[in-house]
Design brief:
It is a single chain. The chain folds into two domains: 50 residues, no CATH class; 203 residues, Rossmann fold (3-Layer(aba) Sandwich), CATH 3.40.50.150. The N and C termini lie far apart (82 Å). 42% of the residues lie in helices and 16% in strands. Helix 8 links the parallel strand 4 and strand 5. Strands 3-2-1-4-5-7-6 form a seven-stranded mixed beta sheet, sandwiched between helices. By secondary structure, it is an alpha/beta fold.
């Protein structure tokens, strides 16, 4: 293939190739040459790139009308990657799998403290027939949930409202089950939040939490700190042992404490692979520049997470705990 032909092919869909290169950990320029049959490394593959590219900053005007964390372009990208109403990978199957230990029935009152735009909660309604009370820290996502839920199967049994996890106060002993999915690492006062979860659970209530954790008591590595610096809101990771101690001290009976890093990485890769396959038919070059740039930013973030999970510097853990009943009257 001639250089002119290669350049023509690249210009036709540059964002897809850059996305594919960076997602697979390759230097974007060498990857493009390799795809064109030129400049392959000795083993026939392009050189791996261990430094993710610095992406262009978004103009402040492009961050409206929502907010700086979830602007319109990021919401659009997330839903294209993960599905309508979703901001995390795995889809309905993963949402159902995570709460499987709860043994939910339509009689259970259920609180989702990481509701997002309501997609995962709607999936639980479809599977179990429950009613979901959803709380979402981000005001933009909570607002968008009201627009998304009517179009989602099960959405008519989900309500989502915005809350501040640092100050939220809900009625004690009001829920049979509580879910917190990959959100606790953004809560500054984790001890208070966990104490409040214990308070709002009924006797014999159940709590499922998934979160990113540090795997070393020595604190975050340099790579983990660099990931922190790229996040739009502050991040603080506990270790798995720290969560275990906190839950036990509150009186929870911990039934499951497992590392789901491998499954999480597989789901991330699956969803991005599906997107890349579809991108072959949907020319990203025709997308507004803000959407393309946001796609690169989302790819960078999830690629960093995959790298940190794969290296073992962080892990994704699931905790399942039960609040024992009060037997003081027995």
């Amino acid at each position: 293939m001639s250089v002119a032909t290669m350049n023509s092919n690249l210009s036709a869909s540059p964002w897809r190739l850059r996305l594919e290169a960076w997602w697979n950990g390759y230097d974007a320029e060498e990857y493009s040459m390799w795809r064109a049959g030129r400049g392959a490394a000795n083993d026939g593959s392009p050189a791996l790139s261990f430094d993710l590219p610095t992406l262009p900053s978004l103009d402040a005007d492009d961050l409206t009308p929502q907010d700086s964390v979830w602007p319109t372009a990021r919401v659009e990208v997330a839903e294209r990657l993960f599905g309508a109403g979703y901001t995390v990978p795995g889809g309905a199957a993963e949402a159902i799998e995570l709460v499987n230990p709860l043994g939910l029935t339509s009689a259970h009152s259920f609180l989702d403290l990481s509701a997002g735009m309501g997609g995962p909660s709607a999936a639980l309604v479809e599977r179990y027939g429950i009613w979901v009370t959803g709380y979402e820290p981000n005001e933009a996502l909570a607002s968008l949930a009201k627009a998304r839920l009517p179009s989602l199967q099960g959405g008519d049994q989900v309500s989502v409202r915005q809350y501040d996890p640092e100050t939220v106060t809900l009625r004690s002993k009001s829920f049979d089950a509580v879910l917190s999915r990959e959100s606790m690492h953004r809560v500054e006062n984790k001890s208070r939040m966990l104490t409040h979860v214990h308070s709002i659970l009924k006797d014999w209530g159940q709590f499922v939490m998934t979160d990113y954790v540090l795997t070393s008591d020595d604190g975050p590595s340099d790579d983990v700190r660099r990931w922190f610096e790229t996040q739009p809101t502050p991040v603080e990771l506990w270790t798995k042992d720290a969560y275990e101690t906190a839950l036990s001290d509150l009186g929870f009976d911990i039934r499951i404490m497992e590392d789901r890093s491998a499954a999480h990485v597989e789901l991330i890769r699956r969803d991005f692979a599906r997107f890349l396959k579809e991108a072959n038919r949907d020319d990203l070059a025709s997308q507004p520049i803000i959407v393309a740039e946001t796609l690169m930013q989302e790819t960078e973030d999830w690629a960093r997470r995959v790298a940190l999970l794969t290296s073992g510097e962080i892990a994704l853990c699931r905790f399942f705990a039960i609040k024992p009943g009060d037997n003081s009257d027995g």
